[in-house]
Structures are given as C-alpha cells and as structure tokens.
Amino acid sequence: MVVVTKIPDVEASSQELLKEHLKTESASPLVINKEDFPLKVSVNQPNEEINTTIDYNNIPRGLKTCKKLIRKSILEKNKTLLKESCIGLISELSVLTVLEIYSFLNDVSPFNDEPSAPPTSEIDHDWTMIFQKSIAKCQEECDKIINEKTYDIFTNIDDVMKLSYRDLLGILKRTTLNVSDEEFLYEIMYEWAERRSSNHKDFQRILGDLPHHIRFGTMKPKTFKKLKGIKDVLDQKDIRIIRFYLEEKTKGRETHTLPHQWSNPRITSNDSNTRVGRNKRLERAGMYCLICWMFVFD
C-alpha cells in the first residue's frame, strides 16, 4: 500500500488523470490500495516521485469505487471514465445491491432536472448524449431486477427503509412489479412511513402520493379491511369508496373504476411471459397457414 500525501502537478491527459481521479474532497492523505484500484505504480526509492497511470481497460469493480468514479467523471466530463465506470457498476448489480445502485442513479440521473440551458458547444452536446445513454443503460439493468425479483429485493428491509421518497415512489408507480398481492407493498410503504413519523397523525403528509399507487382495488374485501393503519393512510371517504368497489366486484357487478391507480392491476413477469408466448404461437400459426396456402395454390 502506498500513501500519497502530496499530488504533483500533471497535465489533464487520459494517461495522467490518476491524481485527479483519486483526490478526495477532504485534505486528509489519500490511500491507494493496488488491490482495489487498477494502478500501475512504481517506487524505486522512498523519496522518489511515484509514477502512476490509470489502466482504463481495467476499471475497478467495487461498488463504492465505481460510484465515486462516476461522480468524478461527471464533474470532469470524462467520457472514457464514465463509460468504463458504468460497466463496472452494472457488473456489481444483484438482488442485494440493486436498491443502493437504483438510489444512486436517481441522484446523478440527467432526467431528474430540466436543463437550465442548451449545450454551448459540440463537446458539451457529445458529453450530454454519452452521459444520458450511460446512465440510462444502468437504470435499465436496475429496472430488470426490480421488476422481476420484487419480493427478493424487499426482503432486506433495512435497505428499503433507506430509500428516499422519490426512490420509493418510482418503484410503486410501476405496473410491472412481480408481486401477487398488493398487501405486501402496502406493508412496505406503511413501515417506511412509520419509521419517519413519531405520530400517526402526520402519516398522510409523509406518505404524499405513495398510497395513490397501491392497487387497493385488486385486494379481497377482507384483506383491505385488515390492512394495518389504513385509517391513518387514507381518508374515510376514500376508504368507503374502495370498500364499495371491492364489494361490487366480488358480487360480479359493474362499477366505476377507482381514482388514481387503485383499480389498475399490475402486469407480473409471468403475465408478460404468457402474453409473449401466446403472441409467438399466433405468429407461428399464421405463418403455417400462409405456407399451406402457398403450397395449395402454387
């Protein structure tokens, strides 16, 4: 391990950015661990200047390091470092890390804020396009895990509780979450709010629009009636509307759809696979009929 306490002046070239990429915002000495970072370091004498270069073909795969390098690449508009760091970030994706990465991407995403002004040059435009594509690719990979393994990622309740309001809202909004019962998502949402409130009276303020994306209309009447703290989450008027809807639905009667997303069912991965399979079978049947028709009339 080599400790760098003073960073020499270097030009900002792709092979001499090590010092800049490894700077920390604090004034404390920087520790370079060759096992964690792809460095080419050579030190012959104790007082000799350290020769270092970044090996862009071997960007580190540690989650913490990848996040740090992505932020650094954004500050410096370093396209090469951004691309390689995003590849490293994707390689770290798993059921255990997806929520942390999802929250991080929301923080740095170019789609969260409106641009204050158009790009001032072709270089800025090129950087913006690469930045958007790189982050969007990472988000796409996160979405696959969140949508397909919803139950698994929510088993680590501590990570779920760390999500911001924006992060949790972005998940509950999805119609493609792979959950068979909405009660599970309601309980997650309720505990998230409970940890942020000392008084249940301010639940609705803390929850904001989160309850609008719980599919209450897909629950059974008994399940809805037993939901924990539902009176703290919804107004009495909304509770009566949902109960009436569920009762009419159970009796097979037609009724008006509920407001928000309450009566819209989610499309699970199994449903999607079933639809895809059905479409493929129809395509094959159509192709078979076409071949037969050509054979008969040829």
How do you describe this structure in short?
This protein has about 300 residues and is mostly helical. It has helices at about 20, 65-75, 80-90, 100-110, 120-150, 150-155, 155-160, 165-170, 180-195, 205, 220-225, 230-235, 235-250, 270-295, and strands at about 1-5, 30.
Number of strands: 2
Overall helicity: 40-55%
Strand order of the largest sheet: 1-2
Major sheet characteristics: 2 strands, antiparallel
Residue share in β-strands: under 5%
Low-confidence segments: 1-19, 21-53, 113-117, 271-282
Radius of gyration: 26 Å
User: What integer is the average pLDDT?
Assistant: 76
At the first level of CATH, the class of the largest domain is: Mainly Alpha
Order of helix and strand elements from N to C terminus: EHEHHHHHHHHHHHHH
N-to-C span: 78 Å
Under CATH, the topology of the largest domain can be stated as: Serine Threonine Protein Phosphatase 5, Tetratricopeptide repeat
- Quickly give the CATH architecture of the largest domain: Alpha Horseshoe
Classify the secondary structure makeup into a structural class.
mainly alpha
What number of domains? 3
Q: Please give the count of helices.
A: 14
Global geometry? elongated
